[in-house]
Design a protein that fits this description.
With 221 residues, chain A is mainly α. Chain A contains 11 helices and no strands. Helices cover 80% and strands 0% of the residues of chain A. Chain B has 2 domains: 218 residues, Rossmann fold (3-Layer(aba) Sandwich); 130 residues, Beta Barrel (OB fold (Dihydrolipoamide Acetyltransferase, E2P)), CATH 2.40.50.100. Helix content of chain B is 21%, strand content 38%. Chain B has a 6-stranded mixed beta sheet, sandwiched between helices. In chain B, strands 13-12-11-14-20 form a 5-stranded antiparallel beta sheet. Chain B has a 5-stranded antiparallel beta sheet with strand order 15-19-16-17-18. In chain B, helix 2 runs parallel beside helix 4 and helix 4 runs parallel beside helix 5. The chains are: A mainly alpha (221), B alpha+beta (368). At the A-B interface, helix 6 and helix 7 of A face strand 6 and helix 2 of B.
């Protein structure tokens, strides 16, 4: 049980961290570029929202497997396959939760607009300097909610983790898959405990986020 | 005033669907006003000078440096400018003090123009430092905006309609601050405005813009007294005069100012004798006559010579008069009806008298 919980939290935390690092620059580019390529990339990044998780998981399983298109690249790092590994699970989760991290950050970047950047440039701040000293602080609520949403969404995902992780105890078994397995094994008691725990957690996460949002948007600085 | 020492601007192209086609130079000292109606492209020109907007075809140079030409473009953050935005545009995530220090910290390697304490003192910001910009009035916010721009230690100050988000009672204070700061710090400034009263108060040099094109550019006095420019026909038409306080009549509360070619007397504004100042006299406040009238309430009756006249809209005539007898006298603009003008039979070169009903003090410079 502890191993499952540890794997789950590790996966969610790692996914949130990686997604913040990926989604922030991506959101910046999408928010500021008027190029059609940006529109296309924006649309692709939203795909996980509408795609059945099993479809996503299936393609990832093939792509990351020993005969997949990414196999030659993996081999350069001495890896035969990422299917049914924790690393594969992280990659799947990052892709699956990308829209949840991207949307709040992108919306905030668009709302901030050009004006604070003009002020920063007129005060001798380079674009990179302005990004870290003006844009990031002004986007703190959005970055926080992106991280929280990703965390909660990763804990709740099922289809993708089952497809690519296979729910191997100690390695890729997480809470959501273990509920499924408990039900399959007829262990309704355990399933009840886990399900109730996740419900409480999800409610707490959403509630916390709303509170944070109100706090941070009402009181700048 | 060569392009080498001041600001030289050539801009051709479209900014957001709006066509700019303009070239002018501004001197290395004093305030140059970009003046024109709303939507004439003044702000776009200022943004190009700042490097915030990049026009494909542009040549911008300042003090011997090239900021933009066909080969290169110096980005805004590498130009030694200070920019005062229309509505201050403060950083809402930083306190007033942190806003002020934003540019200052990044200008450490630059020859200082003004220090933090000096800015706080002169702009009266001491009680605001810990506050968030969201809790300031429009006037307070703009004072912080001006201070923040100055602390970036600029060599050229760009000011974009700084009073547009400031309530009326606070405007005069902000203008006075800008006036004295520009004068004392000796930083050249480009000031964008559509208000002639603001411009005559601050500017030494005028660039008239309409629909993205240059109408005229030159020293303030030359532009204001040019009968051929559309400015002369505006209801606010008038001239500005450099003056020195020469006498104070305490019994009646009057002050006498000496201008080139004459003395003007007006209700006292509390200036000491010897103070240099700038006066504004509206064309509509001046009448003309051949002989000085007797028994009139008008205090200022000044002899002068008619230099020229221009009738417009069929009813009105602008008359340019030079005070005194010589050619050094100050020039006044008088607005009379065409009927009076034609029936009095004045002609250029003829002497007459200007009756000045109102004199406005617009700028107090320094005691000498």
């Amino acid at each position: 049980m502890t191993a499952i919980l540890a794997t789950t939290i590790e996966l969610a935390a790692l996914t949130s961290l990686i997604l913040l690092l990926i989604a922030t620059p991506l959101a910046w580019w999408l928010a500021r570029s008027r190029h059609w390529v940006a529109e296309l990339v924006g649309a692709i990044a939203l795909l996980p929202l509408v795609l059945p998780p099993t479809v996503l998981g299936f393609y990832l399983l093939i792509a990351l497997g020993p005969d997949g298109p990414l196999a030659p690249v993996l081999q350069l790092f001495g890896i035969r396959t990422l299917a049914f590994t924790f690393t594969g699970l992280v990659i799947g989760s990052v892709i699956y939760s990308l829209p949840f991290a991207l949307q709040p950050i992108r919306a905030r970047f668009e709302a901030i607009g050009q004006r604070p950047l003009d002020a920063a440039a007129s005060l001798r701040a380079s674009p990179l300097d302005a990004f870290f000293t003006v844009v990031v602080p002004l986007s703190r609520p959005a970055l926080l909610s992106a991280a929280l949403l990703t965390f909660a969404h990763t804990i709740g995902e099922f289809g993708v983790v089952l497809m690519i992780g296979g729910s191997i105890p100690g390695r890729t078994q997480v809470l959501s898959t273990s509920i499924f397995e408990a039900v399959e094994a007829g262990d309704v008691g355990t399933a009840h405990h886990l399900a109730a725990g996740m419900l409480a957690f999800s409610l707490l996460a959403i509630f916390g986020m709303r509170l944070l949002d109100r706090r941070l948007t009402r009181l700048p600085a | 005033m060569s392009a080498n020492t001041g600001l030289s601007v050539v801009l051709r192209g479209a900014v957001g669907g709006f066509a700019l086609d303009i070239a002018f130079t501004a001197p290395a000292t004093g305030v140059t006003a970009l003046f024109g109606p709303s939507g004439s492209g003044k702000t776009s020109v200022l943004r190009c000078v700042a490097g915030l907007t990049r026009l494909a075809q542009g040549e911008i140079g300042f003090a011997g440096e090239t900021w933009q030409d066909t080969r290169g473009f110096v980005p805004a953050h590498r130009r030694p400018i200070g920019y005062v935005f229309q509505d201050a545009n403060l950083f809402s995530h930083l306190s007033v003090a942190e806003n002020l220090r934003f540019g200052l910290r990044r200008a450490a390697a630059v020859a200082p123009v003004i220090g933090f304490d000096q800015v706080v003192d002169r702009l009266g910001l001491a009680t605001l430092l810990a506050r968030s910009p969201d809790r300031l009035s429009g006037g307070e916010r703009q004072r912080v905006g001006i201070g923040r721009a100055l602390l970036a230690q600029p060599r050229l100050l760009l000011i974009d309609e700084p009073l547009s988000a400031v309530d009326l009672p606070a405007r005069d204070g902000i203008l006075s601050l800008l006036e004295t700061l520009c004068h004392d710090l000796a930083i050249p400034a480009v000031y964008v405005s559509h208000d002639l009263a603001e411009v005559t108060r601050l500017a030494d040099h005028l660039v008239l813009i309409e629909a993205g094109r240059l109408v005229a550019a030159g020293p303030l006095d030359d532009i204001l007294t040019n009968l051929r420019l559309p400015l002369a026909t505006s209801p606010q038409a008038g001239v500005v005069l450099d003056a020195v306080v020469v006498a104070a009549d305490l019994a009646f509360g009057l002050t006498s100012y000496r201008v080139a070619g004459g003395i003007l007397t007006a209700p006292s504004r509390g200036l000491a004798v010897g103070t240099h100042c700038r006066l504004r006299v509206l064309a509509s406040d001046i009448s003309l006559c051949h002989e000085p009238p007797v028994g009139t309430t008008i205090l200022n009756i000044l002899p002068g010579v008619v230099l020229g006249a221009d009738s417009f809209d069929g009813m009105q005539t602008n008359v340019l008069i030079q005070l005194g007898a010589g050619e050094q006298g100050a020039r006044l603009l008088a607005r009379v009806t065409r009927k009076s003008w034609e029936s009095l039979g004045f002609a250029p070169g003829q002497s007459g008298h200007a009756l000045v009903k109102g004199v406005g003090l617009v700028q107090e410079l320094a005691e000498s």
